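Quick question, first post here. What does this chain look like in 3D?
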Amino acid sequence: MVALGLLAASIGERRMESIPARLQFMKDIPDWEADNSVWGASFPREYQSWEATKQMNSKTKYGGSGFRDYLESTPRLVIMWAGYAFAKEYNQARGHYYAVEDVTMTKRVNEKTPATCWTCKSPDVPRLMDKVGIGEFYASNFHDFKDEVKNPIGCADCHDNKTMQLRISRPALKEAFERQGKDITKVSHQEMRSLVCAQCHVEYYFKGEKEKYLTFPWDDGMTIEGMEEYYERTGHVDWTHAISGAKMIKMQHPDYEVYMQGIHAFRGVSCADCHMPYVSEGGIKYTDHQIRSPLENLQNSCQVCHKWSENEIKTRVISIQDKNKELLEAAESEITLAHLEIGDAWRNGMADGELEEARKLVSLGQMYWDYVAANNGMGFHAPQECARVLAKAHRYASESRRKMAILRAKKRLPEFAAPDILSREKAQAYIKPFVEAQSAAKGK
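> Answer (accepted):
Ran it through. Tokens below.
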């Protein structure tokens, strides 16, 4: 009851944020102003805390703002993404301050990359969408706007420049609501404290071969089963696996969808309550815009509601994350072997028709695994749901391998010998001839 009372008080405080902060303006902020320092002239504390997203010295067991090379730490990911750009480079995302720099420097961008990839990286994007049109923006080339996208994720992405009220600045979230018959202008301020994050921290795909229209696959629900139904119905695939030939979906970062299935969402706790908590400075209370793991700011986040020691909270959170990591790795191992065994049978002359069922199963297994793997929090936002989804991912991959074992026995294929893929370099060297052969086939 004490925790619920504190939670109610905390949410009540946040409702006060919905009152227009007009009196705080030192000078007017122009429409489409993307330079965060201009907003900072009127809101220096929020701006200074946003600037702290440039810090790279924080590190929790599974997150933080420092550099992590996921392909180096988990080389089997290279096999799982063979033929897709993530097999080239996949690093831990840095803070919002680096959004433009990181998307510009990544090896995943090439001469064919659509402008859609800018969508969540800068408050310059809404201005460009207004200038050229939303559809035209998405259908353009990434490099067409390199000289115009300069400012990293910041104030204008989430705030109205006249009132400072929270606002939705990207079309995909509004469009997803409209397709579900919901009006996003009717949601509460507390819901907006998560929905401004959900503009980007979600699963999405680029609809249309040329249109590349950013779309949320929410029409059949936000669970993994709902997304499976959506992608099955629309026929969308992200790529064909270079080793197994399976049609694949790459989940992006379904943070909001997973969060919505956890206890914090059920209790009405928003993303901002934990990742952007209130801080006090000289009697002035403001929202911390550093946007980081609550594990690095327990006093202002978790301990507002949970009256446990910092050590008790950290131990509890890491215990949940460790269990999630164990389930992730078990599914990864099965999915990797399934791709390799299908690929080996394919090279030994097994026909596409014979491999169809096993390919479908490994594709489903990887999509389910990725729904958990690609969302931030290492399973903490909805532990039971993540465990359930990973159990299904493992089952799909195991069933794929079982069907391949039966087929291989019928064809009297030699026993499959797994390659040495124990480092990123070895794994990338292994997939290289498969990727080159796939590219050559596309060029014919």
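Residues 37 and 48 are 9 Å apart (CA to CA).
The first helix runs from residue 2 to 15.
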